[in-house]
UniProtKB/TrEMBL annotation, chain A:
Family: Belongs to the binding-protein-dependent transport system permease family.
Entries under Pfam families matching the protein: BPD_transp_1 (PF00528)
Cited CDD domains: TM_PBP2
Protein name: ABC transporter permease
Lineage: Bacteria, Pseudomonadati, Thermodesulfobacteriota, Desulfobaccia, Desulfobaccales
Signal peptide (from-to): none
Membrane topology note: Multi-pass membrane protein
Origin superkingdom: Bacteria
Entry-linked PROSITE patterns: ABC_TM1 (PS50928)
Subcellular localization: Cell membrane
TrEMBL record, chain B:
Protein name: ABC transporter substrate-binding protein
Species in which this protein is naturally found: Desulfobacca acetoxidans
Top-level division of the source organism's lineage: Bacteria
Record carries keyword Disulfide bond: no
GO cellular component assignments: ATP-binding cassette (ABC) transporter complex; outer membrane-bounded periplasmic space
Keyword vocabulary terms for this entry: Signal
Signal peptide: none
The keyword Signal is assigned to this record: yes
GO biological-process terms attached to the record: peptide transport
Organism lineage: Bacteria, Pseudomonadati, Thermodesulfobacteriota, Desulfobaccia, Desulfobaccales
A Pfam family per the record: SBP_bac_5
C-alpha cells in the first residue's frame, strides 16, 4: 500500500514538473512554429495563434487550465501539429510499443542466452571473440549500426524497405499483406535495437554468472543428477538475474529515448522522434503529453523491476 | 553452429520473401513519391496545414488560387483573365467556366467572395487581406476586388496565394483549424486527397479526373517521410528528393536528373542595432571588410553557394540589381574603420575609454562552421569574439528580444515579390530580421512607394534603389546563398517557379508540372 502511495505522490509531483519544464525552455512555440516564415505570416494570424493556444495568458492560468483538462483526460491540443495531443501521440506510441517491445524481448532473450553460454563455455576459444564482438557492438552508436544495416540490406541487397512502418499504398483490404508489411518494415529497425542492446545484456549476465558458476548449490544440483540445461538456467542463471532485472527495469523506461536514432535512420514513426520534434518546436501540450507517458513508463519499469526482484530472489520476498 | 547459421539464413530469406509479398509483388501501382525527412506538415486543409512553405505546398495540390505561376510568371488558374482598374483601384477576375469542386458542385464567383469574407474573419497564415476593401460579384463568373489603395504585390501575395474555398462546405465551419475531416480537403485543385497519415508524414493524392485544365499526367503522387533522402532515392523507394551537393555527380552517372535550385535563402550576420558599436555604420562596414566572402563559401559550403550581395536580393531574383556599394575583403581598411570610431589597437584587442571591445556571436549548430570562420576573420583584425551556440528556437527568441551582440540567422523567400523587403525592414519584424534596424526616412519612403507603384519598370527602379540603400547602410551583413539540389527520376518535368511557388516557396514541386503540356511551362 505504501509503495502504491509512493508512486501516486511521485506521479503528482512529476505532473507539476511536467507543466513547468517545457516552459523553462528558452523560446516559445510560435517562434518555433513559424521560424523564418515570420516573413510570410500575416499579423492577424499571429495574434489568432497566440490567443488560440492561451499563450497570451499568465502562467498560473495556463497551469489551472492544464490541470482542469488533464482531470478530464484531455491532454490538450498540439501547437505544431494543430491536432489533439492524444491523436498525435496515439499512433506513434503504438509503433514505439511494437518496435521497442519486440527489440526488448528479443534482446533480453538473446542476450541472456548468449551471456549464459559465454559464461558456461568460457574456456572455448570462440567465447573470447564473441566477448570482443559484444564490446564492439555495445560501443557502436545506434544510428551507425542502423545506417550500416540500411545500406547493406536495403540499398545493396534490396531485401528490406528504406523507411516507414507500413507500405505507402494502404493494404487494409488485405490484412495478411498488411501484417506482413508491418513485419517486413520492422525487421531492420528492431534488429538494430536488438544488436545494440543484446551485447550489454549478454556481458552483464556473463559477469554475474561467472560468480556463481562454482557455487556450492551448483555442486549440489549436479550431485542430485539434474541435467546441465536445468542447472544452467534454473539454478545458475536465476541466481545471476538480479543485476539484469535492475538493468531491464531502468532500460524499460528509456526504451523510446534509445530508439530515437534508429527511428530517424529508418523514418520509423515512433514516439522518440515525436518527442524530439516536440522539444525542438517547443510544443508544450505535446511535450507534456509525451512526458506523462514517459513518466508512467518509467514508473511501470520500476514497478516491474520490484516485482521481478521478488520473483527471482526469495530472500527479498521473505524480507517484504 | 553451421546448422544455426543455416536456419538464420532461411529465416532472413523467408522474411525478405514476405516483404515482396507484402509489397504486392508490383500488383498495386505505386504513386510517384517525393521524400522529405521532416515528414508531417499538418493536415492538408487550407487552415490546418503547418504555416511553413512545405505545409502550404501540400495543400496547393488540392486547392487552386485565382492565378498561379509557372517558370515565366503569372498564368491563369481559376481565373482565365484578370484586369486592373485604376479608379477606384480594383482587380476584376473572370473565372474559367465549368470548374467544379472535388464533390461535383460548381465553383462560382460567390465562392471567391465567400473566401475573402471568411478569411477576414478567420485569418490565414499566408494571406493578408487588409488591402481589399470590398468584393463585388458581377455575375456567376466575374468578381471584382476593390482595394483601399493601389497595391503592387496584389497578384502574387493575394490572387496567387489565396486558396479559394467551397462556400457550401466552409460556411458552417466555426473553427477552421479544427475542421479536419475529409470535407476540409475538398478543393478545386488537380488532385484529391486519398490518404493522410500524420505519423508517416504521408500525403497521397490521386488525380482529379475532371480537372478543368486537363487530367494530371501522374495518376497518383505523394509526399512521404524518409530517413535518408539520398539512400531512398538511390534505392528508387522515392522518385524525387533533395540531395546533398556531393552526391550530384554520382546521381547523374546513375541516370537521375539533378537540378540546382535558385538561391533564395540567405545567411546573414545580424547586428544588434540597440548596442554600440554595432549601431555605427563604420563598425558594420569594418566587419564586412574583415570577411572574405568567396573564401567563406569555399570553406564552409565547399563551394556550393554564392557570396551574398550587400543589397540582400540574390542574382537569381527577378528584382535583383547589383548595388554600387561593395565591401571587398580588406583587413587593413577594416582596422582603419575601427580606429575612426575611437578604438585603439592593443595587444589585448581594440580598446576605447579603457574598455576592451569584446562581442558574443550567437549561432545555431547548423552554422557552427560559419561562426568559427567569422571568429577567425574578426580575430585577424584584432577583434575579440566569443562564440555561443544555441538551438535555432533559442537563437530566434534572443534575436527577437535583442539579447545578442552578433548573430547568424537566415531566411528564405528572397525570390518572391519585393514586398518581403518591407517586411524585413519595417515594423516589428525588423527586430527579428535586421536586429532592430530603423530605416531612415528616405528608405521608408522608397519602401512605401514600391508597394504602391504598379508600373513594373518604375517599381524595378525603386527596388534597385532600395537594394542600393541596403548595401550602403548594411543593416545586416548578407553572407551567402547556399546552393540546394533536387534529384529525381526524370519522369515529371519539374521546373523552378518564377520567384518561387505562391509568394516564394523555393522548391520545384509546382503542380503545373503535372498537367498536360507541362513541358511548355519550363523556362525557354
Amino acid at each position: 500500500m505504501s509503495r502504491v502511495l509512493g508512486y501516486v505522490f511521485v506521479l503528482l509531483f512529476i505532473v507539476g514538473l511536467n507543466f513547468a519544464l517545457p516552459r523553462l525552455l528558452p523560446g516559445d512555440p510560435l517562434t518555433a512554429l513559424v521560424g523564418e516564415q515570420d516573413l510570410i505570416i500575416s499579423p492577424a494570424y499571429r495574434q489568432e495563434l497566440r490567443e488560440r493556444y492561451g499563450l497570451d495568458q499568465p502562467l498560473w492560468r495556463q497551469l489551472v487550465e492544464y490541470a482542469g483538462r488533464l482531470s478530464h483526460g484531455d491532454l490538450g491540443y498540439s501547437v505544431y501539429y494543430q491536432a489533439p495531443v492524444a491523436k498525435v501521440m496515439g499512433p506513434a506510441l503504438l509503433w514505439t510499443a511494437l518496435l521497442c517491445g519486440t527489440s526488448f524481448l528479443l534482446s533480453t532473450c538473446l542476450g541472456t542466452w548468449l551471456g549464459v553460454e559465454l559464461a558456461v563455455q568460457r574456456r572455448r576459444s570462440w567465447t573470447a571473440a564473441a566477448v570482443g564482438g559484444c564490446l564492439v557492438l555495445e560501443s557502436l552508436p545506434g544510428f551507425l549500426l542502423g545506417m550500416a544495416l540500411l545500406l547493406i540490406f536495403s540499398l545493396k541487397l534490396g531485401w528490406f524497405p528504406f523507411f516507414g512502418a507500413l507500405e505507402v499504398v494502404s493494404q487494409v483490404t488485405r490484412p495478411a499483406a498488411l501484417g506482413l508489411g508491418i513485419l517486413w518494415h520492422l525487421i531492420l529497425p528492431a534488429s538494430t535495437l536488438m544488436l545494440a542492446e543484446a551485447p550489454g545484456v549478454a556481458l552483464l549476465v556473463r559477469a554475474s554468472l561467472l560468480k556463481v558458476l562454482a557455487a556450492p548449490f551448483v555442486l549440489a544440483a549436479r550431485a542430485r543428477g539434474l541435467t546441465e540445461a536445468r542447472i544452467k538456467y534454473r539454478y545458475q542463471a536465476r541466481n545471476a538475474l538480479l543485476p539484469l532485472i535492475t538493468r531491464l527495469g531502468l532500460r524499460f523506461g528509456m526504451l523510446w529515448a534509445m530508439a530515437l536514432p534508429v527511428e530517424v535512420v529508418f523514418a520509423y514513426p515512433g514516439a522518440g522522434q515525436l518527442l524530439y520534434q516536440a522539444l525542438l518546436k517547443r510544443d508544450y501540450p505535446l511535450i507534456q503529453g509525451l512526458l506523462l507517458v514517459s513518466i508512467l513508463t518509467v514508473l511501470a519499469g520500476n514497478a516491474l523491476a520490484d516485482w521481478g526482484y521478488r520473483w527471482a530472489d526469495p530472500r527479498v520476498r521473505s524480507r517484504a | 553452429m553451421a546448422k544455426r547459421s543455416l536456419w538464420l539464413t532461411v529465416l532472413i530469406l523467408v522474411l525478405a520473401g514476405a516483404g515482396l509479398l507484402s509489397a504486392g509483388g508490383g500488383a498495386t501501382p505505386r504513386p510517384y513519391l517525393i521524400g522529405d525527412p521532416q515528414g508531417d506538415w499538418g493536415f492538408p486543409s487550407p487552415f490546418a496545414h503547418n504555416p511553413r512553405g512545405p505545409g502550404y505546398l501540400r495543400v496547393s495540390f488540392l486547392f487552386d488560387t485565382l492565378i498561379w505561376k509557372d517558370a515565366r510568371g503569372f498564368i491563369p488558374a481559376l481565373a482565365d483573365s484578370w484586369e486592373y482598374q485604376a479608379s477606384p483601384p480594383a482587380y476584376v477576375f473572370r473565372l474559367h467556366p465549368g470548374v467544379i469542386w472535388h464533390d461535383g458542385q460548381p465553383l462560382t464567383a460567390r465562392d471567391v467572395a465567400f473566401t475573402i469574407d471568411y478569411l477576414k474573419k478567420h485569418p490565414h497564415p499566408w494571406v493578408d487581406l487588409r488591402p481589399i476593401s470590398t468584393v463585388e460579384v458581377l455575375d456567376p463568373l466575374t468578381v471584382r476586388l476593390v482595394l483601399s489603395q493601389p497595391y503592387a504585390p496584389f497578384l502574387e501575395e493575394i490572387a496567387g496565394t489565396m486558396f479559394i474555398l467551397p462556400r457550401h462546405i466552409w460556411e458552417q465551419v466555426e473553427d477552421p483549424i479544427r475542421f479536419q475531416d475529409a470535407r476540409a480537403c475538398v478543393g478545386s485543385g488537380p488532385y484529391r486527397l486519398a490518404e493522410y497519415r500524420r505519423e508517416h508524414g504521408l500525403y497521397r493524392f490521386v488525380a482529379f479526373e475532371t480537372y478543368y485544365r486537363g487530367k494530371p499526367t501522374a495518376s497518383e503522387i505523394g509526399f512521404v517521410q524518409v530517413g535518408n533522402e539520398l539512400v531512398a532515392l538511390k534505392g528508387k523507394a522515392v522518385q524525387a528528393a533533395a540531395v546533398p551537393p556531393e552526391a550530384v555527380q554520382e546521381l547523374k552517372d546513375q541516370g537521375f536528373t539533378v537540378l540546382s535550385q535558385p538561391h533564395f535563402f540567405c545567411l546573414k550576420l545580424l547586428f544588434n542595432h540597440h548596442k554600440f558599436p554595432q549601431q555605427e555604420l563604420a563598425f558594420r562596414r569594418a566587419l564586412a571588410q574583415a570577411v572574405n566572402l568567396p573564401d567563406l563559401v569555399a570553406q564552409t559550403l565547399r563551394g556550393y553557394g554564392l557570396p551574398a550581395s550587400p543589397g540582400l536580393l540574390p542574382p537569381d531574383s527577378p528584382w535583383y540589381c547589383a548595388p554600387q556599394a561593395r565591401y571587398p575583403f580588406d583587413p587593413a581598411a577594416a582596422a582603419r574603420l575601427l580606429e575612426s570610431l575611437g578604438y585603439r589597437r592593443t595587444p589585448e584587442g581594440w580598446m576605447r575609454d579603457g574598455h576592451l571591445l569584446a562581442l558574443e556571436l550567437l549561432s545555431s549548430p547548423a552554422y557552427a562552421r560559419v561562426a568559427e570562420y567569422l571568429k577567425k576573420s574578426f580575430q585577424n583584425i584584432g577583434l575579440t569574439v566569443h562564440l555561443r551556440q544555441v538551438d535555432h528556437t533559442i537563437l530566434d527568441q534572443r534575436v527577437k528580444n535583442q539579447q545578442f551582440d552578433l548573430a547568424l540567422s537566415g531566411h528564405g523567400g528572397l525570390g518572391g515579390d519585393p514586398k518581403f523587403i518591407n517586411d524585413v525592414c519595417t515594423g516589428p519584424l525588423a527586430r527579428e530580421f535586421l536586429g532592430g534596424y530603423q530605416p531612415p526616412p528616405k528608405m521608408v519612403q522608397l519602401l512605401t512607394d514600391q508597394l504602391q507603384t504598379l508600373d513594373e519598370a518604375k517599381r524595378r527602379l525603386l527596388v534597385a534603389r532600395i537594394q542600393e540603400q541596403l548595401a550602403y547602410e548594411l543593416p545586416a551583413l548578407p553572407l551567402f546563398y547556399p546552393t540546394w539540389y533536387l534529384g529525381h527520376d526524370g519522369r515529371i518535368p519539374w521546373f523552378f517557379t518564377r520567384g518561387g511557388i505562391a509568394k516564394g516557396i523555393p522548391v520545384y514541386f509546382n503542380k503545373v508540372a503535372l498537367l498536360p503540356g507541362a513541358a511548355s511551362a519550363s523556362p525557354p
